[in-house]
């Protein structure tokens, strides 16, 4: 993988692991820019300063626990590299430990027996279920492609000719814990790292390419801080895909000739500008015109799932739905013919939102647009996976919305 620049100066935007270091209280000047320039909260300067003062004192504050979607923009905005997001996640963690979680949140806990991803698997076609069974192989290998839970929710995305030679290994039980990280659930991250350590020991691989931007960021920047121990070379899929297109190995025979807007992966902000540029370079090669949303790259909105991350929201369905509609609405207003996502989770969130919008713009994963431009027909049924997510949330969450019961996240044993 091409090396990314990760500037660490106070006057430059930090990237990678440096962007996710602990909160630096000494560096923080309580200027409030992290919250006043937040694409979601956008507090006034005075309100932002009050909130930061409260959070620094150990108070839950009045805004962050209700509204922060942990999209990383605050860390990039901070002029002193103080990593305010880490402070916010500390307060999230304290809230979860002190009060537990509302009953309705169980549907979005990655290791709950009846969560949104097991719901997705239940609605997969027989062919897709066979793919998951194939990917569960635990025999030793030299290198493999890790799909990530979101690809496991839409395994048909991997049925492109340029992916056929990949040795894909993984499954829902080997979740990277991205959602635990962005909700401040530190104990669950440690347990996830321990399980993945055992999994990687079984495979004995030397190299892993991650088919998920968020997963790549978590494996390289987050999990090592929570106990992940591996000497594997870990790479991201977008530079690999760009290399295949740029070299001509993937031949573009049917240029798209359409306007496309891009739903950013929040974790691309962590990896850096060169990574954020890759989907744009790929679209240009595919014959598409990129139409940017007002919120793009480092200030992009989360696709919607982040609307459920705040500690006081805990995946409330209205919070998730409104955040997804906000992001999709901005995409639709660009006048683009289609929306591109290079995260399968964003595809799921947007597909769920657009399943109830008549005449909604089509939402494509980047693999699908490469397929179209190279003369292949994507196999995914555009609304099926998103509709299954939406109906699953209604079925599993709606009956619990009035409940006052508090729950703990499920245990994560080392062996699934």
Structure report:
This protein is of the alpha/beta class and about 425 residues long. About 40% of the residues lie in helices and about 5% in strands. The chain has helices at about 35, 45-55, 65, 75, 85-100, 115-120, 125-135, 150-155, 180, 185-205, 215-220, 235-245, 265-270, 275-285, 315-335, 345-355, 365-375, 385-395; strands spanning about 100, 145, 205-210, 235, 260-265, 290, 340, 365, 405. The protein starts with about 30 loop residues before the first helix and ends in a 9-residue tail after the last strand.
Short précis:
This protein is α/β, with parallel strands linked by helices and 416 residues long. It has helices at residues 33-36, 45-56, 64-67, 73-77, 84-99, 116-122, 126-135, 148-153, 178-182, 186-203, 213-222, 237-246, 266-271, 273-285, 317-333, 344-354, 366-373, 384-397, and strands at residues 101-102, 143-146, 207-210, 233-236, 259-263, 289-290, 338-341, 363-365, 406-407. It folds into three domains: 16-98, no CATH class; 106-242, 3-Layer(aba) Sandwich (Rossmann fold); 247-400, Rossmann fold, CATH 3.40.50.
């Amino acid at each position: 993988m091409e090396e990314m620049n990760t500037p660490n100066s106070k006057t430059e935007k930090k990237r990678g692991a440096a962007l996710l270091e602990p909160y630096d209280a000494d560096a923080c000047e309580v200027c409030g820019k992290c919250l006043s320039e937040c694409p979601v909260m956008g507090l006034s300067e005075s309100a932002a300063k009050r909130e930061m003062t409260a959070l620094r004192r150990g108070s839950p504050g009045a805004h962050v626990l209700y509204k922060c979607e942990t999209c990383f923009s605050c860390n990039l905005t901070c002029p002193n590299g103080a990593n305010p997001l880490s402070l916010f996640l500390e307060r999230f963690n304290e809230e979860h430990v002190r009060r537990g979680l509302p009953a309705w949140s169980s549907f979005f806990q990655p290791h709950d027996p009846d969560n949104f991803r097991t719901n997705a698997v239940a609605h997969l076609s027989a062919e897709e279920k066979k793919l998951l069974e194939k990917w569960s192989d635990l025999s030793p290998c030299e290198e493999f492609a890790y799909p990530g839970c979101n690809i496991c929710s839409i395994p048909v995305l991997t049925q492109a000719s340029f992916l056929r030679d990949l040795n894909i290994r993984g499954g829902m039980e080997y979740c990277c814990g991205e959602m635990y990280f962005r909700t401040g659930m530190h104990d669950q991250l440690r347990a996830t790292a321990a399980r993945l350590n055992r999994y990687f020991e079984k495979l004995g691989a030397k190299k892993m390419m991650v088919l998920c931007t968020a997963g790549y960021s978590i494996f390289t920047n987050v999990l090592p801080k929570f106990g992940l121990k591996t000497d594997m070379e870990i790479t991201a899929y977008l530079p690999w895909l760009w290399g295949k297109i740029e070299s001509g190995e993937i031949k573009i025979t049917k240029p798209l000739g359409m306007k496309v807007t891009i739903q950013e992966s929040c974790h691309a902000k962590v990896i850096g500008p060169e990574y954020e540029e890759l989907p744009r370079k790929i679209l240009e090669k595919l014959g598409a015109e990129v139409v940017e949303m007002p919120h793009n790259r480092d200030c992009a909105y989360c696709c919607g799932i982040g609307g459920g991350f705040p500690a006081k929201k805990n995946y409330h369905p209205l919070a998730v739905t409104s955040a997804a509609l906000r992001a999709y609405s901005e995409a639709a207003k660009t006048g683009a013919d289609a929306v591109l996502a290079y995260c399968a989770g964003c595809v799921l969130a947007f597909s769920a939102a657009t399943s109830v919008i008549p005449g909604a713009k089509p939402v494509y994963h980047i693999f699908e647009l490469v397929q179209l431009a190279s003369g292949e027909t994507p196999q995914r049924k555009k609304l099926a996976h998103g509709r299954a997510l939406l109906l699953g949330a209604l079925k599993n969450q709606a009956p619990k919305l009035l409940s006052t019961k508090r729950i703990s996240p499920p245990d994560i044993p080392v062996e699934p």
